[in-house]
Protein 1
Amino acid sequence: MTEASTTTTTTHLMTINMGPQHPSTHGVLRLLLELDGETITKAVPHVGFLHRGVEKLAEYRTYHQCIPLTDRLDYVAPFSNNLAYALTVEKLLGIEIPERAQHIRVLLCELTRIASHLLWLATHALDIGAMTVFFYCFREREAIYDIFEMVSGARMHTSYIRVGGVSRDLPGGFAERTHKFVMEFPSRLNEYETLLTENPIWKKRTVDVGIISAEDAIDYGLSGPSLRGSGVNWDIRKAEPYSQYDKYQFVVPLGKNGDVYDRYRIRIEEMHQSNGIVQQALNILPKGDYLARIPNVTLPPKEDVETIMESMITHFKLITDGIHPPKGEVYASIEAPKGELGFYLVSDGSSHPYRLKIRPPSFVNLEALPKMIEGRMLPDVVATIGSLDIVLGEIDR
Amino acid sequence: MPMKNEDLAALIKTKFPEAIMSIASFRNELTLTVKKDAVAEIAQFLKKNEALDFNFLSDLCGVDRIETDNVFDVVYHLYSLSKNHRLRLKASVSPDAPSLPTVTGVWKTANWHERETYDMFGITFEGHPDLRKILTPEDFEGHPLRKDYPLDGRQPATLRDIYRKDEA
């Protein structure tokens, strides 16, 4: 009989690489995880795999040519990106835009919020293992994309919003189709909720996971649902209303614990609220111009271009030379589906932006990821990334 | 009620009479240009002062103004969640020694923003805990958002150059 030898235990940390090719990193996020058993001791995100130099490209384009670049930031919420950029240029120019255009913008941005949150819910649930939700969400998202296609001619890269308004008026049949969607959608949302909200497996994976306190959330610059999950009441639509948001009735849902589950509840409730805003917008939608008529900023009406010489010249000048805003610098931000999306624009008076800085919500939100997962278990990483709703297109720009 | 821009500016000016170099307002946005060495101190004050309460750093970025003024600007966009007001802080650094104090001690979110500014402009932030490149690849040379950096890039070999040089 030999006595049990005293074994010396050594703690051995293991470093593993997660991504950039990994289904639940939502694109090309790479995480270097240092593990002690299954506990994460350190997490280091690496980004930049999708860097396309959007800010550099913008310096070589006219103000209108930058709009398609913005589509490709958060590519699941193109209208919001277009809007944030257009608002920045409009602020720089100091122009007012017609009411109809503003309400069209609100309508489409809220549909975008729903589409973006649907993609989030679909992939988030899929990451955690609930596959059915994915199919349901994509069914509704498809309906929204059909509406986008009807309005702008494109499903993803819409480039619909222009400096001074929108590129064309809403097509015939738009109101009926959107109305049909809006009427159906709340029941669909309830359907998703029956699959998840009280589901014990879902709750085990999300409640008390990826917690961040309100104080930390502000310190890390979180915004959007990720911030409100921690109970901080800040929504730019309420705090600094743009595009007539002050005329709409809606509630900003808040969480308590700042965990994955709270962020889930908030986004679900936001979809309800957005649906309500779309409904109100359909009722409010005034008649009038969809594009401000400002010489040297917006294109003249097509029929004028075809019949009046001066209009044709203006059109030609605007297309070839672009807008010349005054010298100066402005910052404008909106409540995009993922948080504060801001553009900082420096103009030297020429037809190109001198400097265009994009403040993407996902970039800042992702920065807080290590704080949320360090000391937690490996499977929590997937749940937490999902709950931050990041899109690498706008992180890497 | 948000404070008026003039009151905001006056309050900061009385606290830092030396360090504030200019106060400008454009499209109702307040911009303070400050001495670069005082940035961290001013940032701390802006955050801690109860009337100002700039607890949220929205954005931090660089601007290349070498052609006109031979400086890089570092621009901070601040916001107060409780008071609902905004402020733009600017500091200029010389291109010969582009460096200024970090504000990571004031707002944690500054970490990645400063890394990005370092990556894009080569501006270093003294006291930054982990000043690495963030968006460009490890072997990338240069700082792409500087105006003297060409749009096509300066990387010597593209895949086309390496694998398809006979086709041209």
Note: The beta strands of chain B are 20-26, 29-34, 56-65, 71-79, 86-93, 99-101, 124-126.
Protein 2
Amino acid sequence: MPTTLSSKQRLSIQRIQMPTQDAQPRSRNFKEVNLGLSQAAAIAEAQRCLLCRGRNCVAGCPVGVSIPEFIGALAEGDIPAAADILQQDNALPAVCGRVCPQETQCEAKCLRGIKGEPVAIGYLERFVADWSLTHSADLTSPVLRPASGKRVAVVGCGPSGLTLAGELVGKGHEITIFEALHDTGGVLRYGIPEFRLPKEIIDVEVERLVARGVKIECNVIIGKTLTLAELQQEFDAVYLGNGAGLPVLLDIPGENLSGVYAANEYLTRVNLMGAGQRADCATPIIQGKRVAVIGGGNTAMDCVRIARRLGADSAMIVYRREEDQMPARVEEIHHAQEEGVEFVMLAAPLEVVGDENDWVAALRCQKMVLGEADESGRRRPVALAGETFLLETDVVINALGTRANPLLTATAPELKLNQWGNILANEDGSTTLPGVFAGGDIVRGGATVILAMGDGKRAAASIDAYLQGLPSRLQKTG
Amino acid sequence: MFTVLRNELIAPRLHRILVLAPRIATARQAGQFVMVRASEGEERIPLTIGDADSAQGTITLFVQAIGAGTQKIVSLQPGSSLQDVAGPLGMPTEIETWGRVVCVGGGVGTAVLYPMAKALAAAGNSVTTIIGGRTKSLIILADELAEFCQAVRITTDDGSAGTKGFVTSELKSLIEAPDSRPSTVFAVGPVPMMRAVTELTRSYAIPTVVSLNPIMIDGTGMCGGCRVQIGGEAKFACVDGPEFDGHLVDFEGLAKRLRMYEKHEEACRLSGN
């Protein structure tokens, strides 16, 4: 193994390309698109890291992974050491290595990105995490603090709650996660499709937490089966990571025609229930031939790529701005394009048109142009007067986003919410109720897996301090 | 896992199942439902909680075997378990003391009606129940309802039990007699029946509550599949309902959405799944 490389040698290595399944076959199967790096490729990529003193990549990571350290170990060929570092900082590295938007986070801050391409930090994280999944015996068991005798209830078994559970169980606290659905993972399981995040990865990451002592109870809906007040009585602290709720509706005529789905329903049928993936699946799904997905985020990309896999000849993204303004990850857009997804840009849906049997027949759209920039700096789409067109389609999927889930908050009136029904939480995760912390989509509205995980990690530090009677180390900003 | 303690057939294809689910038994109120999966790989099925005994930690479910998922549930023998039972979900029935109320149940909807009627009677209302069905064997829970109702009236399409005809004619006669006119009506059954009941009560301006059973996937306020139009506004049956003001419900829209998977269900029946 090369131990020391000169900067010049490091600079001369080209960024690795992620090997993928070929676009044509993969657009018809649910197997993972990204195949992962070989060991040699991963080590070579790790050697591109200059181990610079700025460590800006770490600042760019919502969970603060010690990126230069794990990459440094990997560059030396010491994969167990890299894995140890990674598992200390991140409860779900195999998930993050797949679904994090590294290009806007750690990799955006990479020194090498200034004059060329940043180190492929996400690919390396995935490589080390996947190695860990099959080499658990080679990993150093994390040092656990002795049992504190304190009990923490976690509401929601999604990325935020799982991260928090992983952090706190290591600090000696007893953790019970309550999950409303019949299976673990939250949005990781019902939201993200198999070809982007195989269920097996979620299973193994969750099993790892269970092996460390985290208890998970499915089919328990806080706000219904048990109330927040009951949890507060039984536990020393509570973390609310119950995620997003009901969809934002299109609010256009024809929304209730047969064949119109909200993204959450479409994704839940396919990802959680297995519709369209197994021949014997009990849960049905309408497999359209021409599918229009409204929206430009990652959820929209997931839906449209699923539609291709379920047999759509034509799977379309309908978005009111232009492609480079879509909030979806660049990689997802690129993969969707390779898989034959069509992009109908500058189009705002006006009406879902039905046939004589009240099934979707077309989507009537308004042509848009880009006008002045709005507060967010993006150019605002403006309707082009009188210019509408019909898009022939048999399934329409609304991927506009979600609202806050009301089930828990409706039964906890003492908990302060914002005008959209999201829980008000400080930077450290504390809420208006002592001992009750919150993070992820129930606080942020629709955000990303990694931001939810970052919230979980910060709240874990706050809860740990709270349980020891120490002041929170994070400045309150709320 | 949730142990099945009893399972009895009370009408053709209709089972009454007693399930051990202590948390739900304690939290549950009339009008709420649970999401049930018999085993791995099955659909999540919304079922009204028919009754509950918090001391015993049990809930009663009425299950009509119509599809693959419900067939699996009713086939479970005492001692075996349901994989998943999640709830109680939905808003409870708004129970007030109105005085005289009429509860109208059509077919298996009577099972959904039963806990509402029981709670209304317990709150001091004088409850008259009308049960309708195609034929005698489909009239369910008459004896159970009679335990707390002032009167139980039965109608069948073929006249094999009770009065021949529809529930609406029976309801109309109650409304038109001054000493039996209800101040509120509760109706649960097939969409055309609930629609007919609400059309009738509208003309007499009698407030009417219906319990809707749209397509549902998670039942926990996430997927939006159960959206229904109430007074021109989209509502979600799983969090806002399942009970709504019957005079505001878009029954035609509901009926259309309920037909979305007809072909799939037909295919399941043919293949024996």
Note: Chain B has a mean pLDDT of 93.
